């Protein structure tokens, strides 16, 4: 396994990791940044990040994550400020999983709905207007996604499916 340590930072990116073992982060209470991008992680179980109480930055982009269990981010819900989760196949998650990230100020996701769920977010990609968030959260749209594609306007919805 390829691992780089930079003081209070750890990079586990590009290791073909498919699962994160329980309790693997126990005792890492000073770790502030964790890079798990470009692996093959499929699920983030509840409490998977237990022990990471000081985490401020988490990069999970370009994995194969389909499911995020409620409580996956609970260990650092109040300290996390940056989350990059684009390039995954998110299908199963509860709104409260992201609503509890109360101090996040930068989020990058393929799903505009997730941007709407995070309280007082400063930077969110793809951008979404307050009016669009109201419609998304009311359930007007079953799915609203925008791939990370610089050739498209982030104000244009690229996949919109009405909830009939």
Topology (elements, then pairings):
Elements: E1 4-6, E2 9-11, E3 33-35, E4 43-44, E5 57-59, E6 67-68, E7 82-84, E8 92-93, H1 95-99, E9 106-108, H2 112-117, E10 123-125, H3 130-137, E11 141-145, E12 159-162
Parallel strand pairs: 2-3, 3-5, 4-6, 5-7, 6-8, 7-9, 9-10
Antiparallel strand pairs: 1-2, 11-12
Short description:
With 164 residues, this protein is α/β, with parallel strands linked by helices.
Note down, in words, how this protein is organized:
By secondary structure, the chain is α/β, with parallel strands linked by helices. It has a single domain, classed as Ribonuclease Inhibitor (Leucine-rich repeat, LRR (right-handed beta-alpha superhelix)), CATH 3.80.10.10. 12% of the residues lie in helices and 22% in strands. The chain has three helices and twelve strands. It has helices at residues 95-99, 112-117, 130-137; strands spanning 4-6, 9-11, 33-35, 43-44, 57-59, 67-68, 82-84, 92-93, 106-108, 123-125, 141-145, 159-162. The chain has a seven-stranded mixed β-sheet with strand order 1-2-3-5-7-9-10, with no helix packed on it. Helix 2 links the parallel strand 9 (106-108) and strand 10. The protein starts with a strand and ends with a strand. The model is unreliable at 1-7 and 141-164 (pLDDT under 50).
Task: Write a concise keyword list for the protein shown above.
7-stranded mixed sheet, 164 residues, globular, 3 helices, alpha/beta, Leucine-rich repeat, LRR (right-handed beta-alpha superhelix)
């Amino acid at each position: 396994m390829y691992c780089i340590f930079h003081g209070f930072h750890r990079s586990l990116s590009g290791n073909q990791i498919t699962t994160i073992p329980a309790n693997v982060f126990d005792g890492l209470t000073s770790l502030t940044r964790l890079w798990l991008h470009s692996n093959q992680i499929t699920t983030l179980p509840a409490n998977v990040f237990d022990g990471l109480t000081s985490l401020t930055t988490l990069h999970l982009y370009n994995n194969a994550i389909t499911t995020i269990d409620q409580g996956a981010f609970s260990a650092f819900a109040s300290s996390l400020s940056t989350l990059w989760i684009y390039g995954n196949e998110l299908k199963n998650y509860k709104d409260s999983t992201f609503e509890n990230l109360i101090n996040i100020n930068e989020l990058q996701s393929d799903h505009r709905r997730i941007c709407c769920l995070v309280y007082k977010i400063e930077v969110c990609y793809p951008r979404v207007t307050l009016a669009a968030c109201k419609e998304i959260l009311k359930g007007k749209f079953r799915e609203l996604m925008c791939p990370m594609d610089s050739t498209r306007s982030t104000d244009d919805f690229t996949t919109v499916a009405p909830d009939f």
